[in-house]
């Protein structure tokens, strides 16, 4: 097996790792680094459960090979702070049911709000449209993202 | 051309296993040494909110706060059988078992309290906020913690058996109790060029008996509605010679956030006598009227009745062609 050396920053921590050439990023995160908050739903880029932020953009970590993450900064759900506004808005709005899609949804929402603190409803729906949810019907997730945007802008979220 | 139409559908649904299949839920309640109450129940949490609802029912019955209930669930070495999280049955069936277990425990606690307080009967006693006191003389009181210290064995079981009777050979009878009622109205837009159907607006009215937790009920309506949209317009496992041909999300299409409108929700609270605090099961009933409402709306928009789902763009276009 050919190993590749990569340097990657995950959730603010620097790693220097030897990875197999065909190792997927999701397996690096879950199996090697035990960051199991990232979920694997379909393994083929359709569901978004495996979403992480890489270089400021959301990617499906099941479709990225670990060596492609070389020299990049990655944020996984474990990198979201305890008192994070988006995370807490999800909880307060009841936007979590089984929770399988939640890590990916939170990161998709973060990626949107990092660029746009005043998204329209349509922009929110567009931003999370790569993330499937079988439980919530999306509406409470949309409300949670709206609320988080408002809180981040300095409003009271109501 | 884009054509709009409105549709409505109303349903009723018997919750629980029904039709003669035994339907029993059990729960245990136990007073802990620190005065909190432990509830052991097998109700499985799959995101619908069973844990929350069971804690709320227990707290209400015992006059405690949610934080004073310690819930043990989904642990087969500790929890009694509460049946499956299916048939929209946990809130009603297992909720009843939890309520009965808590009522039985409360009786035992009150008996001990009567002795400790030196009153001749438990009739005049109140239990609230972890205290038992004499209603007409509230300063005469004892705490749950004090009772737990003296009697380490205060526990009780609750068993609830739901009505389920097999129908006769003509399919007549009373297979279920209770029934949940729901209706759904939608406005759709059909693109006659592409065959695509989009849902513009929706309203969902649900007879919940009593909403133990309104936010959870809303979440179930949102989720059930989205499943109904997928069922009506997209989802097809493509069964061929006993095999699925659409075995991945690439081909088995389910709704995304862009396919779902905001839903106006109305909860009708008409308490069911046999239910815990009147609350009925709502998990499945929320979904059932969605597809017929959408199909009715499509008919209203383009005058075509569909008898097969999903109503995919291809099917819409074919139907429009043969209509001429
Ligand atoms: S697991 Fe990666 S998109 Fe589904
Ligand atoms: S909460 Fe279950 S898939 Fe989204």
Automatic annotation (TrEMBL), chain B:
<feature type="domain" description="Aldehyde oxidase/xanthine dehydrogenase second molybdopterin binding">
    <location>
        <begin position="2"/>
        <end position="261"/>
    </location>
</feature>
<dbReference type="Pfam" id="PF20256">
    <property type="entry name" value="MoCoBD_2"/>
</dbReference>
<keyword id="KW-0560">Oxidoreductase</keyword>
<dbReference type="GO" id="GO:0004854">
    <property type="term" value="F:xanthine dehydrogenase activity"/>
</dbReference>
<dbReference type="GO" id="GO:0005506">
    <property type="term" value="F:iron ion binding"/>
</dbReference>
<dbReference type="InterPro" id="IPR046867">
    <property type="entry name" value="AldOxase/xan_DH_MoCoBD2"/>
</dbReference>
<dbReference type="InterPro" id="IPR037165">
    <property type="entry name" value="AldOxase/xan_DH_Mopterin-bd_sf"/>
</dbReference>
<protein>
    <submittedName>
        <fullName>Xanthine dehydrogenase, molybdenum binding subunit</fullName>
        <ecNumber>1.17.1.4</ecNumber>
    </submittedName>
</protein>
<dbReference type="InterPro" id="IPR016208">
    <property type="entry name" value="Ald_Oxase/xanthine_DH-like"/>
</dbReference>
């Amino acid at each position: 097996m050919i190993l590749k050396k990569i340097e990657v920053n995950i959730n603010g921590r620097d790693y220097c790792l030897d990875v197999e050439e065909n190792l997927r990023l999701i397996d690096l995160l879950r199996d090697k680094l035990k960051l199991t908050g990232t979920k694997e739903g379909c393994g083929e880029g359709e569901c978004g459960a495996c979403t992480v932020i890489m270089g400021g953009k959301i990617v499906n970590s099941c479709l990225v090979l670990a060596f492609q993450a070389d020299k990049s900064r990655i944020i996984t759900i474990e990198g979201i702070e305890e008192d994070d506004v988006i995370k807490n808005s999800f909880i307060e709005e009841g936007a979590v049911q089984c929770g399988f899609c939640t890590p990916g949804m939170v990161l998709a929402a973060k990626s949107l709000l990092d660029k746009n603190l005043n998204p329209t409803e349509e922009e929110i729906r567009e931003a999370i449209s790569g993330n499937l949810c079988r439980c919530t019907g999306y509406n409470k997730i949309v409300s949670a993202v709206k609320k988080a945007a408002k809180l981040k802008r300095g409003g009271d979220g109501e | 051309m884009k054509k709009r139409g409105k549709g409505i559908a109303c349903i009723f649904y018997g919750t629980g296993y029904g039709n003669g299949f035994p339907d029993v839920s059990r729960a245990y309640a136990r007073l802990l040494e620190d005065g909190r109450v432990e509830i052991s129940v097998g109700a499985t949490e799959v995101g619908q909110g069973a844990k929350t609802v069971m804690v709320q029912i227990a707290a209400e019955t015992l006059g405690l706060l949610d934080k004073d209930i310690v819930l043990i669930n989904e642990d087969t070495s500790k929890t009694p059988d509460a049946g499956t999280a299916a048939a929209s049955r946990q809130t009603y069936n297992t909720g009843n078992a939890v309520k009965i277990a808590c009522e039985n425990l409360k009786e035992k606690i009150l008996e001990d309290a009567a002795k400790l307080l030196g009153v001749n009967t438990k009739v005049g006693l109140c239990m609230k906020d972890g205290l038992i006191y004499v209603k007409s003389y509230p300063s005469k009181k004892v705490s749950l913690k004090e009772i737990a210290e003296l009697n380490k064995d205060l526990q009780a079981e609750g068993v609830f058996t739901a009505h389920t009777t097999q129908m006769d050979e003509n399919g007549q009878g009373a297979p279920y109790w209770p029934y949940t009622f729901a209706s759904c109205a939608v406005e759709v837009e059909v693109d006659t060029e592409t065959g695509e159907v989009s849902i513009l607006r929706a309203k969902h009215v649900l007879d919940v008996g009593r909403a133990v937790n309104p936010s959870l009920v809303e979440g179930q309506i949102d989720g059930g509605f989205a499943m109904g949209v997928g069922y009506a317009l997209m989802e097809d496992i493509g069964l061929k010679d006993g095999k699925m041909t659409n075995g991945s999300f690439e081909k088995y299409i389910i709704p995304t956030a862009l396919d779902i409108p905001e839903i106006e929700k109305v909860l009708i609270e008409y308490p069911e006598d046999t239910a815990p605090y009147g609350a009925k099961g709502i998990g499945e009933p929320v979904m059932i009227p969605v597809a017929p409402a959408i199909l009715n709306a499509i008919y209203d928009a383009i005058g075509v009745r569909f008898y097969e789902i999903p109503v995919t763009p291809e099917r819409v276009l074919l139907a429009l062609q043969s209509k001429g």
